[in-house]
Design a protein that fits this description.
Strand content: 15-25%
CATH superfamily of the largest domain: Glycogen Phosphorylase B
Shape: globular
Structural class: alpha/beta
Largest sheet: 7 strands, parallel
Strand order of the largest sheet: 3-2-1-4-5-6-7
Amino acid sequence: MVLKIAMVAGEASGDLLASHLIAALKSHVPDAEFCGIGGPKMQTEGFAAWWPAEQLAVRGYVEVLRHYRKIAGVRRQLLKRLLADPPDVFIGIDAPDFNLWLEARLKAAGIHTIHFVSPSVWAWRGGRVRKIARSVDQMLCLFPFEPVIYEKAGLPVSYVGHPLADIIPLEPDQNAARERLNLSADGLVFALLPGSRQSELNFMAETFIETAKLLHARYPEARFLVPLVTRETRMQFENALWQYAAQELPLTLLFGHAHDALAAADGVLVASGTATLEAALFKKPMVIVYKMSAWSWRLMRRMKYQPWVGLPNILAERFAVPEFLQDEATPENLAQALGNLVADPIVPRRLFGLFSEIHQQLRQNTADKAAAAILPILRHAARSRC
Protein backbone atom coordinates (compact mmCIF):
# COMPACT_ATOMS: atom_id res chain seq x y z
CA MET A 1 0.00 0.00 0.00
CA VAL A 2 1.44 3.39 -1.06
CA LEU A 3 1.07 6.20 1.44
CA LYS A 4 -0.03 9.54 0.02
CA ILE A 5 1.19 12.67 1.80
CA ALA A 6 -0.14 16.05 0.71
CA MET A 7 1.83 19.19 1.57
CA VAL A 8 1.66 22.95 1.06
CA ALA A 9 4.72 25.21 1.34
CA GLY A 10 4.35 28.84 0.38
CA GLU A 11 7.81 30.37 0.07
CA ALA A 12 11.55 29.65 -0.11
CA SER A 13 11.98 28.88 3.60
CA GLY A 14 9.00 26.48 3.55
CA ASP A 15 10.38 24.81 0.44
CA LEU A 16 13.66 24.16 2.29
CA LEU A 17 11.92 22.82 5.42
CA ALA A 18 9.67 20.55 3.41
CA SER A 19 12.47 19.19 1.21
CA HIS A 20 14.43 17.95 4.24
CA LEU A 21 11.27 16.49 5.79
CA ILE A 22 10.43 14.63 2.58
CA ALA A 23 13.93 13.15 2.47
CA ALA A 24 13.67 12.04 6.12
CA LEU A 25 10.22 10.50 5.65
CA LYS A 26 11.32 8.65 2.51
CA SER A 27 14.04 6.93 4.52
CA HIS A 28 11.21 5.30 6.54
CA VAL A 29 8.50 5.04 3.87
CA PRO A 30 10.40 5.00 0.55
CA ASP A 31 7.32 4.35 -1.57
CA ALA A 32 5.35 7.32 -0.21
CA GLU A 33 3.96 9.82 -2.71
CA PHE A 34 4.17 13.56 -2.00
CA CYS A 35 1.99 16.15 -3.74
CA GLY A 36 0.36 19.57 -3.38
CA ILE A 37 1.93 23.04 -3.51
CA GLY A 38 5.70 23.31 -3.29
CA GLY A 39 8.94 24.72 -4.61
CA PRO A 40 11.99 23.50 -6.52
CA LYS A 41 13.78 21.91 -3.55
CA MET A 42 10.71 19.81 -2.79
CA GLN A 43 10.44 18.79 -6.43
CA THR A 44 14.06 17.65 -6.37
CA GLU A 45 13.00 15.18 -3.64
CA GLY A 46 10.24 13.79 -5.86
CA PHE A 47 7.38 16.11 -4.83
CA ALA A 48 4.59 16.56 -7.42
CA ALA A 49 3.85 20.30 -7.41
CA TRP A 50 0.31 20.91 -8.61
CA TRP A 51 0.93 24.64 -8.11
CA PRO A 52 4.27 26.44 -7.52
CA ALA A 53 5.02 27.80 -4.04
CA GLU A 54 5.63 31.27 -5.50
CA GLN A 55 1.85 31.70 -5.94
CA LEU A 56 1.50 31.99 -2.14
CA ALA A 57 4.57 34.17 -1.52
CA VAL A 58 2.78 37.38 -0.49
CA ARG A 59 3.28 39.24 2.79
CA GLY A 60 1.35 42.11 4.36
CA TYR A 61 -2.41 42.66 4.75
CA VAL A 62 -2.81 44.97 1.76
CA GLU A 63 -0.73 42.71 -0.47
CA VAL A 64 -2.70 39.60 0.56
CA LEU A 65 -6.00 41.42 -0.08
CA ARG A 66 -4.78 42.44 -3.53
CA HIS A 67 -4.05 38.80 -4.41
CA TYR A 68 -6.83 37.26 -2.32
CA ARG A 69 -9.12 36.16 -5.15
CA LYS A 70 -6.32 34.29 -6.92
CA ILE A 71 -4.97 32.66 -3.73
CA ALA A 72 -8.45 31.72 -2.50
CA GLY A 73 -9.21 30.17 -5.88
CA VAL A 74 -6.10 27.99 -5.68
CA ARG A 75 -7.03 26.95 -2.14
CA ARG A 76 -10.58 25.96 -3.11
CA GLN A 77 -9.29 23.93 -6.06
CA LEU A 78 -6.74 22.20 -3.84
CA LEU A 79 -9.36 21.37 -1.20
CA LYS A 80 -11.68 19.92 -3.83
CA ARG A 81 -8.88 17.78 -5.23
CA LEU A 82 -7.79 16.50 -1.80
CA LEU A 83 -11.35 15.67 -0.74
CA ALA A 84 -11.95 13.81 -4.01
CA ASP A 85 -8.79 11.72 -3.56
CA PRO A 86 -7.90 11.96 0.16
CA PRO A 87 -4.27 11.73 1.26
CA ASP A 88 -3.32 9.71 4.32
CA VAL A 89 -1.87 12.83 5.93
CA PHE A 90 -1.78 16.53 5.13
CA ILE A 91 1.24 18.55 6.30
CA GLY A 92 1.01 22.34 6.16
CA ILE A 93 4.46 23.91 6.04
CA ASP A 94 4.18 27.39 7.58
CA ALA A 95 1.86 29.68 5.46
CA PRO A 96 -0.66 29.69 8.36
CA ASP A 97 -3.35 31.89 6.81
CA PHE A 98 -3.56 29.56 3.83
CA ASN A 99 -2.95 26.25 5.57
CA LEU A 100 -5.06 26.55 8.73
CA TRP A 101 -8.22 27.19 6.67
CA LEU A 102 -7.38 24.14 4.60
CA GLU A 103 -6.39 21.99 7.58
CA ALA A 104 -9.65 22.70 9.43
CA ARG A 105 -11.70 21.41 6.50
CA LEU A 106 -9.49 18.41 5.87
CA LYS A 107 -9.57 17.45 9.55
CA ALA A 108 -13.38 17.74 9.55
CA ALA A 109 -13.38 15.31 6.63
CA GLY A 110 -11.37 12.79 8.66
CA ILE A 111 -7.94 13.48 7.14
CA HIS A 112 -5.03 13.67 9.60
CA THR A 113 -3.47 17.14 9.63
CA ILE A 114 -0.05 18.28 10.82
CA HIS A 115 1.28 21.82 10.91
CA PHE A 116 5.05 22.25 10.67
CA VAL A 117 6.21 25.63 11.98
CA SER A 118 4.17 27.32 14.66
CA PRO A 119 2.57 30.60 13.59
CA SER A 120 4.00 33.53 15.55
CA VAL A 121 1.27 33.42 18.20
CA TRP A 122 3.90 34.54 20.74
CA ALA A 123 4.43 37.73 18.72
CA TRP A 124 0.91 38.72 17.65
CA ARG A 125 -2.65 37.33 17.20
CA GLY A 126 -2.34 34.95 20.17
CA GLY A 127 -6.05 34.19 19.96
CA ARG A 128 -5.28 31.90 17.01
CA VAL A 129 -4.14 29.12 19.36
CA ARG A 130 -7.66 27.77 19.93
CA LYS A 131 -8.40 27.85 16.20
CA ILE A 132 -5.14 26.04 15.51
CA ALA A 133 -6.00 23.36 18.08
CA ARG A 134 -9.30 22.75 16.28
CA SER A 135 -7.61 22.60 12.87
CA VAL A 136 -4.63 20.28 13.35
CA ASP A 137 -3.82 16.96 15.00
CA GLN A 138 -0.13 17.75 15.66
CA MET A 139 2.05 20.87 15.81
CA LEU A 140 5.78 20.75 15.10
CA CYS A 141 7.67 23.71 16.59
CA LEU A 142 11.03 25.15 15.55
CA PHE A 143 11.75 27.14 18.71
CA PRO A 144 12.04 25.89 22.30
CA PHE A 145 9.68 28.46 23.84
CA GLU A 146 6.72 27.47 21.63
CA PRO A 147 5.49 24.01 22.86
CA VAL A 148 4.13 25.27 26.20
CA ILE A 149 1.70 27.54 24.33
CA TYR A 150 0.07 24.57 22.60
CA GLU A 151 0.25 22.24 25.58
CA LYS A 152 -2.02 24.67 27.44
CA ALA A 153 -4.52 24.37 24.59
CA GLY A 154 -4.37 20.55 24.68
CA LEU A 155 -2.79 20.22 21.24
CA PRO A 156 -0.13 17.50 20.77
CA VAL A 157 3.14 19.28 20.05
CA SER A 158 6.80 18.44 19.46
CA TYR A 159 9.86 20.68 19.56
CA VAL A 160 12.03 19.63 16.63
CA GLY A 161 14.58 22.45 16.44
CA HIS A 162 15.42 24.38 13.29
CA PRO A 163 16.84 22.62 10.22
CA LEU A 164 19.05 25.58 9.38
CA ALA A 165 20.95 24.95 12.61
CA ASP A 166 21.71 21.43 11.33
CA ILE A 167 22.76 22.59 7.88
CA ILE A 168 24.95 25.56 8.82
CA PRO A 169 28.30 24.67 10.41
CA LEU A 170 28.97 25.85 13.94
CA GLU A 171 32.11 27.61 12.70
CA PRO A 172 31.57 28.82 9.12
CA ASP A 173 34.66 29.14 6.94
CA GLN A 174 34.77 32.71 5.64
CA ASN A 175 37.93 32.22 3.57
CA ALA A 176 36.53 29.18 1.78
CA ALA A 177 33.30 31.04 0.97
CA ARG A 178 35.25 33.99 -0.42
CA GLU A 179 37.34 31.67 -2.53
CA ARG A 180 34.20 30.13 -4.00
CA LEU A 181 32.93 33.62 -4.84
CA ASN A 182 36.28 34.87 -6.17
CA LEU A 183 36.59 37.49 -3.43
CA SER A 184 39.69 38.80 -1.71
CA ALA A 185 40.39 37.12 1.64
CA ASP A 186 40.94 40.45 3.41
CA GLY A 187 38.52 42.84 1.68
CA LEU A 188 35.36 44.24 3.31
CA VAL A 189 32.21 42.42 2.15
CA PHE A 190 28.56 43.24 2.82
CA ALA A 191 25.71 40.80 2.13
CA LEU A 192 22.37 42.38 1.23
CA LEU A 193 19.28 40.16 1.64
CA PRO A 194 16.22 42.24 0.69
CA GLY A 195 13.70 39.38 0.84
CA SER A 196 12.67 36.30 -1.12
CA ARG A 197 9.35 37.64 -2.41
CA GLN A 198 8.65 40.05 -5.23
CA SER A 199 6.24 41.90 -2.92
CA GLU A 200 9.09 42.49 -0.45
CA LEU A 201 11.38 43.88 -3.13
CA ASN A 202 8.65 46.30 -4.16
CA PHE A 203 9.08 48.00 -0.79
CA MET A 204 12.76 47.40 -0.05
CA ALA A 205 14.86 47.31 -3.22
CA GLU A 206 15.34 51.09 -3.32
CA THR A 207 16.24 51.27 0.39
CA PHE A 208 18.83 48.50 0.07
CA ILE A 209 20.40 50.05 -3.02
CA GLU A 210 20.59 53.54 -1.51
CA THR A 211 22.09 52.06 1.66
CA ALA A 212 24.74 50.29 -0.41
CA LYS A 213 25.61 53.60 -2.07
CA LEU A 214 26.19 55.24 1.32
CA LEU A 215 28.28 52.31 2.55
CA HIS A 216 30.32 52.43 -0.65
CA ALA A 217 31.01 56.12 -0.08
CA ARG A 218 32.23 55.29 3.45
CA TYR A 219 34.12 52.13 2.42
CA PRO A 220 35.15 52.52 -1.26
CA GLU A 221 36.93 49.15 -1.26
CA ALA A 222 33.86 47.21 -0.04
CA ARG A 223 32.11 44.59 -2.15
CA PHE A 224 28.37 43.85 -2.03
CA LEU A 225 26.69 40.46 -2.52
CA VAL A 226 22.95 40.15 -3.22
CA PRO A 227 21.64 36.55 -3.28
CA LEU A 228 18.18 36.20 -4.83
CA VAL A 229 16.23 32.96 -5.04
CA THR A 230 14.16 33.33 -8.23
CA ARG A 231 14.66 34.68 -11.74
CA GLU A 232 11.79 37.08 -11.11
CA THR A 233 13.34 38.67 -8.02
CA ARG A 234 16.75 38.81 -9.70
CA MET A 235 15.29 40.65 -12.71
CA GLN A 236 13.35 42.93 -10.35
CA PHE A 237 16.52 43.90 -8.47
CA GLU A 238 18.49 44.37 -11.71
CA ASN A 239 15.80 46.79 -12.91
CA ALA A 240 15.99 48.65 -9.59
CA LEU A 241 19.77 49.05 -9.99
CA TRP A 242 19.17 50.81 -13.29
CA GLN A 243 16.26 52.82 -11.95
CA TYR A 244 18.31 54.19 -9.03
CA ALA A 245 21.49 54.72 -11.06
CA ALA A 246 23.51 52.15 -9.11
CA GLN A 247 25.09 50.24 -12.00
CA GLU A 248 28.57 51.31 -10.89
CA LEU A 249 28.30 49.75 -7.44
CA PRO A 250 30.78 46.86 -6.90
CA LEU A 251 27.81 44.56 -6.45
CA THR A 252 27.38 40.92 -7.44
CA LEU A 253 23.94 39.42 -7.91
CA LEU A 254 23.89 35.74 -6.99
CA PHE A 255 21.29 33.22 -8.11
CA GLY A 256 20.81 31.54 -4.75
CA HIS A 257 24.09 31.02 -2.86
CA ALA A 258 22.73 32.92 0.16
CA HIS A 259 24.82 30.79 2.52
CA ASP A 260 28.00 31.52 0.58
CA ALA A 261 27.18 35.23 0.71
CA LEU A 262 26.54 35.13 4.46
CA ALA A 263 29.66 33.09 5.17
CA ALA A 264 31.78 35.50 3.12
CA ALA A 265 30.35 38.69 4.61
CA ASP A 266 31.64 40.96 7.37
CA GLY A 267 28.23 42.57 7.84
CA VAL A 268 24.69 41.87 6.69
CA LEU A 269 21.69 44.04 5.84
CA VAL A 270 18.71 41.71 5.99
CA ALA A 271 14.93 41.86 5.67
CA SER A 272 13.08 40.50 8.69
CA GLY A 273 12.27 36.82 8.27
CA THR A 274 14.07 33.50 8.18
CA ALA A 275 17.15 35.14 6.64
CA THR A 276 17.82 36.94 9.93
CA LEU A 277 18.15 33.56 11.63
CA GLU A 278 20.48 32.38 8.86
CA ALA A 279 22.67 35.45 9.41
CA ALA A 280 22.75 34.71 13.15
CA LEU A 281 23.72 31.07 12.55
CA PHE A 282 26.58 32.34 10.40
CA LYS A 283 27.50 34.51 13.45
CA LYS A 284 27.36 37.76 11.47
CA PRO A 285 26.80 41.33 12.67
CA MET A 286 23.58 42.46 11.04
CA VAL A 287 21.01 45.20 10.76
CA ILE A 288 17.42 44.03 10.40
CA VAL A 289 15.03 46.05 8.24
CA TYR A 290 11.44 45.78 7.12
CA LYS A 291 9.01 47.93 5.15
CA MET A 292 5.45 47.28 4.00
CA SER A 293 2.39 49.27 2.98
CA ALA A 294 1.36 51.97 5.45
CA TRP A 295 -1.94 50.25 6.21
CA SER A 296 -0.34 46.85 6.83
CA TRP A 297 2.19 48.51 9.12
CA ARG A 298 -0.50 50.24 11.21
CA LEU A 299 -2.31 46.94 11.74
CA MET A 300 0.86 44.99 12.54
CA ARG A 301 2.13 47.59 14.99
CA ARG A 302 -1.12 47.53 16.98
CA MET A 303 -1.24 43.74 17.25
CA LYS A 304 2.35 42.76 18.06
CA TYR A 305 3.18 41.67 21.62
CA GLN A 306 6.96 41.97 21.71
CA PRO A 307 9.37 44.85 21.17
CA TRP A 308 11.40 42.80 18.64
CA VAL A 309 10.57 41.51 15.17
CA GLY A 310 13.89 39.88 14.20
CA LEU A 311 14.34 36.23 15.17
CA PRO A 312 17.86 36.76 16.60
CA ASN A 313 16.49 39.38 18.99
CA ILE A 314 13.43 37.29 19.88
CA LEU A 315 15.63 34.30 20.72
CA ALA A 316 18.06 36.50 22.67
CA GLU A 317 15.13 38.32 24.36
CA ARG A 318 16.87 41.65 23.82
CA PHE A 319 18.03 43.99 21.06
CA ALA A 320 21.21 42.09 20.25
CA VAL A 321 21.26 43.68 16.77
CA PRO A 322 19.58 46.86 15.49
CA GLU A 323 16.14 46.82 13.91
CA PHE A 324 14.81 49.59 11.67
CA LEU A 325 11.19 49.30 10.61
CA GLN A 326 9.04 51.27 8.21
CA ASP A 327 9.73 55.04 8.45
CA GLU A 328 12.90 54.47 10.52
CA ALA A 329 14.31 52.25 7.78
CA THR A 330 16.09 55.06 5.95
CA PRO A 331 19.32 54.46 4.00
CA GLU A 332 21.09 56.92 6.32
CA ASN A 333 20.06 54.99 9.47
CA LEU A 334 20.88 51.62 7.96
CA ALA A 335 24.27 52.59 6.55
CA GLN A 336 25.30 54.29 9.79
CA ALA A 337 24.29 51.30 11.94
CA LEU A 338 25.84 48.64 9.71
CA GLY A 339 29.00 50.65 9.16
CA ASN A 340 29.41 51.09 12.91
CA LEU A 341 28.94 47.36 13.52
CA VAL A 342 31.69 46.26 11.14
CA ALA A 343 34.03 48.98 12.41
CA ASP A 344 33.66 47.92 16.06
CA PRO A 345 36.31 45.35 17.16
CA ILE A 346 34.32 44.16 20.20
CA VAL A 347 30.65 43.81 19.14
CA PRO A 348 31.26 41.14 16.43
CA ARG A 349 33.03 38.93 19.00
CA ARG A 350 30.15 39.29 21.47
CA LEU A 351 27.61 38.49 18.77
CA PHE A 352 29.62 35.41 17.76
CA GLY A 353 29.33 34.07 21.32
CA LEU A 354 25.60 34.83 21.60
CA PHE A 355 24.75 33.38 18.19
CA SER A 356 26.82 30.26 18.93
CA GLU A 357 24.64 29.60 22.00
CA ILE A 358 21.48 30.02 19.93
CA HIS A 359 22.92 27.71 17.27
CA GLN A 360 23.55 24.91 19.78
CA GLN A 361 20.05 25.27 21.22
CA LEU A 362 18.38 24.97 17.80
CA ARG A 363 20.57 22.14 16.50
CA GLN A 364 18.25 19.16 17.09
CA ASN A 365 18.52 17.05 13.90
CA THR A 366 15.21 18.58 12.89
CA ALA A 367 14.24 16.51 9.85
CA ASP A 368 14.63 13.21 11.73
CA LYS A 369 12.80 14.55 14.80
CA ALA A 370 9.95 15.84 12.66
CA ALA A 371 9.73 12.54 10.78
CA ALA A 372 9.68 10.63 14.07
CA ALA A 373 6.75 12.76 15.26
CA ILE A 374 4.85 12.22 12.01
CA LEU A 375 5.41 8.48 11.56
CA PRO A 376 2.93 7.34 14.27
CA ILE A 377 0.22 9.41 12.58
CA LEU A 378 1.13 7.92 9.21
CA ARG A 379 0.97 4.39 10.63
CA HIS A 380 -2.39 5.12 12.24
CA ALA A 381 -3.70 6.50 8.96
CA ALA A 382 -2.45 3.41 7.12
CA ARG A 383 -4.15 1.07 9.61
CA SER A 384 -7.39 3.07 9.33
CA ARG A 385 -7.31 2.74 5.55
CA CYS A 386 -6.77 -0.99 5.80
